[in-house]
Amino acid sequence: MNLKQVIKNIISNALKELEIDYDESKIVVEIPKDRNNGDFSTNIAMQLVKILKMNPREIADKIVGAIKDKEEIKNVEIAGPGFINIYLDDAYVFSGVKSVIEKDFDYGRSTIGNNEKVDIEFVSANPTGILHLGTARGAAYGSNLANILSFAGYDVTKEYYINDAGNQIINLGMSIKERYKGLCGLEENMPEDGYYGSEIIDIAKTIYDEFKDSKLDEALEYFKEIGVNYLLNIIKTDLSNFGVTFDVWTSEKAIRAKGRIEESLKILDEKGLVYKADDATFLKTTVYGDDKDRVLVKSDGSYTYLVPDIAYHLDKFDRGFDYLVDVFGADHHSYVSRLKASIEALGYDKDKLEVRLLQMVRLLRDGEIVKMSKRTGGNITISELVEEIGKDAARYFFAARSLDGQMDFDISLALKKSSDNPFFYVGYAYARICSILNDAKQKGITINPDIDGIIDDDSKALILKVYEFIDVVENASTKKEPHLITNYVYDLASLLHNYYGKHRILTDDIKESSKRLALIKTVGITIKNALKLIGVVAPSKM
Fold this sequence. Notes:
Elements: H1 3-17, E1 29-30, E2 40-42, H2 44-47, H3 49-52, H4 56-67, E3 73-79, E4 83-88, H5 90-94, H6 97-103, E5 117-121, H7 133-151, E6 155-162, H8 167-183, H9 198-211, H10 220-241, E7 248-251, H11 252-257, H12 260-270, E8 274-277, E9 280-283, E10 294-297, H13 306-318, E11 323-329, H14 335-345, E12 353-358, E13 361-365, E14 368-370, H15 382-389, H16 391-399, E15 407-410, H17 411-415, H18 422-443, H19 457-479, H20 483-502, H21 510-533
Parallel strand pairs: 5-6, 5-11, 6-7, 11-12, 13-15
Antiparallel strand pairs: 1-2, 2-4, 3-4, 8-9, 9-10, 13-14
Helix pairs in contact: 6-21, 7-19, 8-9, 8-10, 12-13, 13-14, 15-16, 18-20, 18-21, 19-20, 19-21, 20-21
């Protein structure tokens, strides 16, 4: 049950009874840090001061009179300048235990998304090399956001945009060809902007091992295609091992082949938004709030990066999405305004696109910054990180921080098997619950979800924390902040560990044991569901 919404409804109905017209969505209901100040608290009386021209405590008194006899409420108090502290009826609170257990893996699921079609495009690294650590943060974020939005009732598509056209792919093909020539005993002339990773040599070697020097006369397109396919397969494998999959892989090359670039340029030109200057073609993005007009076609006739991106986003909207989310690196900050302006120029609402920028990741080991891989001498890759600490630990740590700031990823902490490690701490809470439930099964003690009254204050606090999950899921989906789930599940695990330290679950009192089993079963369900949303499998054993 979403108790916060229940309280909002009670207050809203009370205001109607008092003939006070107020938008329910503006009613603020909070959970006090100190449970002595109620299970919930609201400042609605202060919110109404300007409307009613009354003292807030007088307003609070009227509202209290209208809600105090509701069956869900045990007691109501007015505090400070007019806060209303609400204490819920114990039997009502525990009546939701059965529902949590029945819903099981669907507990916390919401319909707030109303089946709105959302496209989340993330990672989208050029297929010119292996995915490194910085990409992992965006991969985790996009995957987590997709999980959360789907759980909250949105129709989500996860999309990877393959930049398989343009100069970077030309340089990739040239780099592979030159390495291949070297293996054939010829002189290598690597391009100025070539790719020097060991994987480029590996690709050249696969060609040489199969065909020897018979491919020397092949056109550049041959080497480009082999390179893109080879590297894309590695990217897909590394992401899959990281628990990240995509519904759609969209090729820039295919977008170009369908004529979407010409189509989008025609739309812009017909709207009178395109002009020529200094032998280049410009788009009037300043009309839509950009700080300067942007070049579409350079003086040499080649497209800027913006052009295929405009065509790609036109293609997205044409596929019927209600909302687009793009996950970019922080270095794309200045690109956002021109992309939004371009979307508006096409005739779409720029607010239908939300760009999330992810900051840098620093890898730490024993307090020292790790800059290079010991194995390759290059950047740390996703596959190396997963190999060392495991997929679940990696996903948890990336999900524990907001994208807003630079992240320090502490490998030493992630490997610790102690309460200092938040991943271990949360996992141990779930494993502890599994162990207790297994012990109960062996002893023939069954779960009794029909809890008709309070067990104790700690039990009430624990189940109230479980009920918060519904609100947290909705907040994480509307704010697009997966770390809210991670923060919540850590707090829930902490409450469980404290509860376990104070109360024995299995005792000679079978009736009480059955009730406590039901209670911790709800905690286990909630931890498992929360971890699943951030790509982590809850461990039944530690």
